[in-house]
Amino acid sequence: MISTNNPRIKLIRKLRDRKERQQTGLFYIEGLRIVAEALQTGAQIEYLVIAPGLLSSPFGKQLLQSEAARSILVIEVSDETFLGFSNKDGPQGLGAVVKQKWATLDQIRKRSATWVALDAVQDPGNLGTILRTLDSVGGAGVILLDQATDPYDPSSVRASMGAVFSQLLIKTSLQEFAAWNHANPIPVVGTSGTAQLDYHQVKYPFPSILLMGSERQGLLDQHLKICDMIVKIPMIGRSDSLNLAIATAIVLYEMFNQQRV
Amino acid sequence: MISTNNPRIKLIRKLRDRKERQQTGLFYIEGLRIVAEALQTGAQIEYLVIAPGLLSSPFGKQLLQSEAARSILVIEVSDETFLGFSNKDGPQGLGAVVKQKWATLDQIRKRSATWVALDAVQDPGNLGTILRTLDSVGGAGVILLDQATDPYDPSSVRASMGAVFSQLLIKTSLQEFAAWNHANPIPVVGTSGTAQLDYHQVKYPFPSILLMGSERQGLLDQHLKICDMIVKIPMIGRSDSLNLAIATAIVLYEMFNQQRV
After folding, report:
1. Interchain proximity A246–B138, CB inside 8 Å
2. What interface predicted TM-score (ipTM) does this complex get?
């Protein structure tokens, strides 16, 4: 057994911090389901960490003996050490330090599927939930514009329910995205409360990129300018906006419904 | 100025605790927008609490002079005292202790609109987000079945963006709800991953009650038994489920789209 002072164990705690994740290009995941997803999608796992006393499930033991896990370094720690860095309420005794994976704009053309571009998304839970929904409709990935939250934040990873591994992630600026889109004219669909078109009464191009504004501001003029189509989601209540992940899902499912007719 | 030891100020801190909210039937809200919503919807406000040094916005000052606020007790505290109990990152110097409002099953017949029934919803953020979405589609309210989280939890109130005031809230058991529904046959629509009907290819009755399962288990047999129609939301990704608030929103907007044709 190795101790809390081991640098690999110390790193796990440090990876809660965005700066540390950025500098190392790593992130930490925990739980049977998410580690299984990492193994199955071929994520690059630096090392697994297990607490044998907590890892009681047969599924967990099978996972460790799987082909994908066999060549990976496994670090055994005491239950106490594990509980010391665990983020979870019901720790399952299995975690992994994983290499982040980032895609580039030129990969958009290679995946003929729906993409979501998010301007300065702030809430990691929203980002993870959007990844999860995008996975469900067969989407390709997310393009993070400007000052966005980190998809590898523990709250985002948790909310994504594994989709952080299956969806491609691109980080860029509005300026670069606009320049790329100019040279690669894949239709961009924006949403705005003041748009004329009802999101439910238009025919969406496929593939397309759904561009969503930030939680606070929605889409700004500079974003609306690069849209090929701007739609609104009607609302008849007292509130003038929907939660970002909800609004994204409503349009994604409308697009998906049209694709699968 | 009154001090931190004042019982009304002490109560604000205590109201973070569910037990205290249950025993007193009160909850605490903070911020200009949500307090404005409470005033505008006629919520029963026990007292307002203000920190003059933090309350710089003209909108906040107008609020306090409004007709609705005039007869309400206002407690002034120092900025320091306010920051001591504030839940917010950017405290705006205005809060309120508000009386909870609960509706009963017999009110369902009086509001010919969509209702959502939630079995044992666990996450207050999900519950608040569902209230917010329901407000947007002109829904009536939420029926909380069995061991549900508290709609007056600060995370739920925050996520609801004020809809906790405009939507009716009913707390009951599955058994009572089933008995009531038997005598008052308003159609119940359930969702399940194993249903035959595609949610997008059915015609929904109006009004109806959308019944959603908990985050962990979905709808159980005893819930499916009381449904008049069970639909599934198709998914083609790696994941076999959507976030609860997302799944609810997708069906709510489909119902809403049919209503507004």
Report:
1. no
2. 0.95
Domain span holding position B173: 105-259
Size of interface A-B (CB pairs under 8 A): 100
Phi, psi for B103 (deg, rounded to 5): -105, 170
Backbone angles phi, psi at A34, to 5 degrees: -70, -35
Q: Over chain A, what is the mean pLDDT?
A: 95
| Total length of chain B | 261
Percent of chain A at pLDDT exceeding 70: 100
Domain CATH for B199: 3.40.1280.10
* Residue A1 maps to a domain: no
Tokens (6 digits) for A223: 């974003």
Do B142 and B171 belong together in one domain? yes
Q: What region does A216 belong to: left with phi over 0, alpha with psi -120 to 50, or beta?
A: alpha
Q: Same structural domain for residues A140 and A25?
A: no
| Residue from the list A166, A233, A241 with its beta carbon closest to the beta carbon of B237 | A166
DSSP result, A67-124: HHHHTS-EEE--HHHHHHH---SS--SEEEEEE---B-GGGTTTS-S-EEEEES---H
Cα–Cα distance list, B226 to B81, B210, B249 (Å): 51, 12, 21
CB contact under 8 A, B245 and A250: no
Nearest chain A Cα distance for residue B232, angstroms: 13
